[in-house]
Amino acid sequence: MNILFSKPAFFFAQISAQGFSLMRIGWALTAFCYYALQSKDVLFFYGDNGILPPALQETVLRNDHLFSVLLYANSDAAVFSAYILFLTLLLMSVVGMFPKISTALSVLLLFSFHERNILILGGGDTVMRIIGFFLLLAPRIDAFSISRIPLQWAHWKKTRTLLSAPKNPIWIWRLLLWQVVMIYLSSVTYKLMGEMWRSGTAIAATLQHPDYTRFPPWVLQPFLPYTFVADYLALLWQALWVVQLVPSFFADIALPKKIRAIPIRRFLLLGGILFHGSIYILMDAGLFSLAMFCLYIGLLKEEDFTWMRSFLNTFFVRKETIAVLYDGQCGLCVRSVFALQLLDNLHRLNLVNFRDVTVRNTIAPDVTEEALDKALHIKTQNGRYLQGFYAFRHVAKHLPLLWPMYPFLFIPGISFIGERVYARIANRRSTCTHEDCRI
Amino acid sequence: MAVAVYAIPHDMGVEVVDGTRQVFVPLFRPYMLTTSQWQHWNLFAPNPRRRVSVFAIQQHADDAWEDIFTMTPWNEPFLRRTQWVKLANATDRIGKRLLELTCDQFDLPPGTEVSLLEKWYVIPRDGNADWTPQWEQNRMFTISCHILEQE
C-alpha cells in the first residue's frame, strides 16, 4: 500500500477526459431511450396511485439511507413533471449543454426513479447507476460538448488548432477499472457456484428460454451442442479481469518484457465487446449489454483512441489526406472549416487558406484563385479536385460522425439538390464578410 | 473497498468468505445505500432461469374464468414484460395490487372476482434441444374488485 501512496502519479497523473466525456454521452443517450420507452408506465411504476402506493412502500423500500426526489412528489402531475425534466436533462447531457450540471441532475433523478421502485430493476439498471455515480465524481466530463464550442472557436481563430482535450486525474479511471473488475469477478464466482455453468449447459438452456432468445428454436438448435465452448470462454474471460489488479511494479519484476508489452486491458475490452455484443445479438437481456458498452467507453485512454484511429485508418476507410481549400476572408467559410475540423476525428483534413498565395501555390498550383473563390474545393490524395456538393460528399466519407448520412448522399437526385443548395449558400456567402454571417 | 465487499457472493458456503461479508457489509452499507451503489452480480447465476412463465389475469364470469389480460414472451416487448413479471412475482401484496389496478384499468364492477394465473414449464438442465414442454399452472392470487382510493 505504501508503494501506491509513495507515487502521487499513481492517483494524480493527468489523463484525457475524452473517455469519460464519451461515457457521459453514451450513458445519457442510453438512459434517454430506455426511459422514453417507459412513458406509458411512468405513473404505474412510480406514481402514488400506481403499483407502489405509500401504504405498500414500507413493505418494499428500505427505511434507512434512502433518498428519492419522487418520495416528495405526491401527485401524478409532479411525478410526470420529474420524468419530463429527467428526459430533458438527459438530452442536455447528450449534447453537452452545461454538461456537469445537466449530468449531475440527471444522475440524481436516475437514482430517484430507481429508489422509488426497486422491484423492476435489473443488472443493466445497476450498471447505469454506477456510471452515473462516476460521472458525478469525475472532475471533467465536458469534452465533446456544445458548451465547449465557444472556447474551441476562440482558440481556433487565434491558432487554427483545436484545444487539447480536458484532463482528469487518473484516480477516477482507476476506480472505474476496479469497479469493472469487481463486477466480473463477482459474476464469475456466482456462476461457478452453479452446476449448469460448470457443466457447460447454461448458455444452451438460456438460448431456449423464450423470454431471452431473439431467434426461433429451429435456428439455434443445430448450435446448442457446441455452446459449452462459449460457456467456458465466458467464464475464462470474466476471470481474466483479475489480471488488472496485478500491480505494475510486480508485473515489471515477474514478467518478461514481451509479455508486459501485450495490451491486456485492450484485449479484455475487445473480449467484452464480443461477449456483450453476442449477448445483445442473440438474446434480449434488456439494458445490460448497452450499459456495459457505456462503461467500457470510460475505460478508454488517450492511447486507445490513437489505436482505434490507427485501426480505422488502416483497415476500414483507406487513409487519405484531403486538402480543404477555404476562403480565409469569408466568415461563413472559416466557421465551416472549423466545424469540419471538430468532426475530423481520423485526422484526415489539411485545412488550407487559399488566400495565402504561398500555401496555395504549394498545395493547389493548378487552380486559380477565381475558381477557388466560387466554391469550396478539396484536393484528394491522388491529386483530384472536387468542389461544392461533391467535395462535401467526399469529405463526409472520412468524418466518422457523418457516416450515418453518407449513404444518403448517393440517393439518385440528391446530388442535383445538393448542388443547388450549395450554390445558394455559396452565393449568399459572397454577400457577407464578417464571421457572424449566417447561411 | 466497499464495492469489493458488496461484490462478495452471498452464501458461498466458505466460512471465511461468508464471515468477511457479514462483518464488513454493515460497515459499508450506509455509504453504498446513500450513494445508490448497492450491487449484486448474480445475472444468469448461479444457474440461469429455466422456468418459462406466461401470465393471465382472468375474471370470473358465468361460472368460468376468462382471460382479460395476458403477459407472454410473445405478446409484449422484453422490457415491459420483465418489469411486469418482476412485479407479479414480488410479494403477495404487490401481486394483489396488480389485480386491483387491473380492475381499475378495465372498469370491472366492484365484486368481480379477478385472478392471476401463471402457466409454466421448465427447460431441462442439460441444455438438450430434444424435449417437449410440460405445462403446469398455478392460480397465484384471487381478489374481489373494489373501488380504489386515490392517494
Radius of gyration of chain A: 26 Å
Helix count from the secondary structure assignment of chain A: 24
Average of pLDDT of chain B: 89
pLDDT < 50 runs, ≥5 residues of chain B: none
> Percent helix among the residues of chain A?
55-70%
Strand content of chain B: 25-35%
Q: Can you put this structure into words, describing what you see?
A:
The complex is a heterodimer of chains A (439) and B (151). With 439 residues, chain A is mostly helical. Helices cover 60% and strands 5% of the residues of chain A. In chain A, α20 (331-343) links the parallel β3 (322-326) and β4. A 4-stranded antiparallel β-sheet of chain B has the order 2-1-3-4. The longest helix of chain B has 20 residues, at 15-34. Chain B is extended, with a radius of gyration of 21 Å. Chain B starts with a helix and ends in a 7-residue tail after the last strand. The mean pLDDT of chain B is 89. At the A-B interface, α5, α7, α8, α10 and α11 of A face α1, α2, α3 and α4 of B.
Task: Compose a concise summary of this entry.
Chain A has helices spanning 2-5, 9-12, 18-36, 42-46, 54-60, 76-95, 99-116, 123-137, 149-159, 170-192, 195-199, 202-207, 217-220, 227-240, 248-254, 257-260, 264-282, 288-298, 302-316, 331-343, 357-363, 369-374, 388-396, 414-429, and strands at 14-16, 167-169, 322-326, 349-353, 377-379, 385-387. By secondary structure, chain A is mainly α.
Question: Which descriptors apply to this entry?
Answer:
heterodimer; A: 439 residues; mainly alpha; four-stranded mixed β-sheet; two-stranded antiparallel ribbon; 24 helices; 60% helix; 5% strand; B: 151 residues; alpha+beta; four-stranded antiparallel β-sheet; extended
